[in-house]
Amino acid sequence: MNTGYRIVTNCILFILIFIAPWWFSLALVCIGLFFFESFYESVFFGLLLDGYQGVTGLTFFGLNIFFTVFVAVIFIVSIFLKTRLTFYSQ
Tens of pLDDT along 48-74? Predict the structure, then answer.
């Protein structure tokens, strides 16, 4: 995809993290993982989600990083899944 689309998508996702519900922002970040080739910004958006809308009772090793871990796992899965999908081509 074009770099302009990526920049606009990043700006929109950044704004939506602060004004939209967490589930909507998380869904858009996961969708962005499949639209862009290496969407490394998704981990940054996971950190923002944890900082702004984090789940206080759910921790990993004492750290409140639920959304970051979730987005990182989806990112790694998407790397392997993109190579195996027949309808996905970039």
Answer: 988 888 777 666 677 778 888 889 999
- Sign of the Cα torsion 2, 26, 20, 68 reads negative
Angle at the Cα of 22 (from 54 to 84), degrees rounded to 5?
105
Q: d(Cα 70, Cα 45) in Å, to the nearest integer?
A: 11
Tokens of 20: 């939209």
The reported pTM is 0.80
Q: Which residue has the tokens 């009772």?
A: 57
Q: Are 49 and 43 in contact (CB under 8 A)?
A: no
Q: Hey, what are 4's tokens?
A: 């302009």
